[in-house]
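Quick sanity check, Magnesium chelatase:
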Amino acid sequence: MLNTAQGPIIHEGNSDLLKLMRISVFSTYLGIPHHIHAEGLRGTGKTTLLRSCTEFLPKIKRIRGCVYNCHPHFPHCPEHKDLPKTLIENIGTEWIPMPFLEISHGAKPGTVIGSIDLKKITDQQKPQAGILPGIIPKAHRGIIFVDEINRLADTSPELTDILLDVMGTKPGKVQIEETGLSKVELPVNLSIWAASNPDEDPGSLKTVRRQLSDRFDFTVDVYRPTESKIVEKIIEDEREKELAIESLIDTKTLSPHQYDETGESYEQLLSLPEDIKQLLASIYIDYNIESIRAVKAIKFGSVFHAKLTNKDTINLEDVLQVVEHALKHRVSDETRKDVINMLSEVNEGNRDKTFESDRNQMDTRKTINNEMISKNRSKQIFKELFSKIRQKLNKPTKDKVVTTKKPARSLEELSQTEDNDIIKEGENEK
């Protein structure tokens, strides 16, 4: 159970949302944003939990003073995209908290995407092109939150179309237009987080605007707490502000300086095993999944889940952590359950194979050890045997002569008798 400085308690009903928030923040930090849609009844704490991360987001590095949050290695805004690298280095860099901005239902398109700065253009002394960036361009490399997105999709078609452009590709884009002036297009790379109450008018986002619903990588249900102890904890939490949601972002995993100097693709941080690639492809084909975004969401969700749990490779456990949320809003409940059951069976089969392989390896090692022990024992026996042979060969030549009545034996017969005695001694040693 975990508190934030603003009060939410992590419990069974909202832990999946927290897991997806962590994945989304991490992937956004690396430049591969993931969009989250939290559904649940009113009062389940969706909005509170989503907003609670603002004080604990990682810092990002940008060109100093850039309102568009240009990455020093990949400048994209009108002011910096054409500047030489040496000039950007002269401007300098700075670290700022990852942006977290909200779009309200009453916002105008110009406020959301931005507008042309007519004052700069009409300046008689020094006319110049200028843009007044809106909420979306300012949130580049960060997160935008939209509450009650199902209602916004029903009442604000213009804002809905803007979100579709932003979420349609990665990175997305916004277009700023003014009558009589050339259109300005800006790339934006950010995650959209949204919350909705599907039981209230106008209904679930999937029924209101299915196209927008499909743009979300993950949809997650949020429930009220079911244990009285958790409810008591929520009530007491007003007096316990000292515990914060620092585990939302693992600072050891997400050091702000960890990736700041590399220009390489962050998708190469973890490789997706070939068998999992084939499995995802077969899911898409065999279960007739309409949107390829589902498979992409599962892929990257698994990658970042593995990274957040400090693993170097991805396995089916990571896939199972995100697959339900990637398919929930895209396929029927029956299909989703079939996919999860299939993956669980494959995962269990892999565990059995691993156990059998480990057992076979143990048996092999045991056999090898027994063979080595047997060989060592044989070596010891022959070593003792050769030692006795050397002792007999090194006996003094002047022994006491004993006369017998037996007939004299040849040298060859004497040698054969002595060899037989030595071999019998060796067999007795065994």
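Posting the structure with no commentary besides this: The longest helix spans residues 333-393.
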